[in-house]
Design brief:
Layout: E1 5-9, E2 12-15, E3 19-23, H1 28-39, E4 43-46, E5 54-58, E6 63-66, H2 70-77
Parallel strand pairs: 4-6
Antiparallel strand pairs: 1-2, 3-5, 5-6
Length: 88
Amino acid sequence: MDIKLVNIGFGNIVSANRVIAIVSPESAPIKRIITDARDSRQLIDATYGRRTRAVIITDSGHVILSAIQPETVANRFIVHKDGHSNDD
């Protein structure tokens, strides 16, 4: 199993194999997910005090907040056929 790490902003990195979804924080259900994760101590705030623009949900139940756009995070997950990612 090859481990792929993805930068989610400000030098923070997550394992691409563990990510289930990357969503925008604007909707009420996502805000509820964030609140529930905070209450259960499963929230990781990687925004460095900036506005949350992407919410990353992992298979372990952790919820990660990022200050970069969901599209930007998603593009960093894409691997070309030659094995290089977009940020190489």
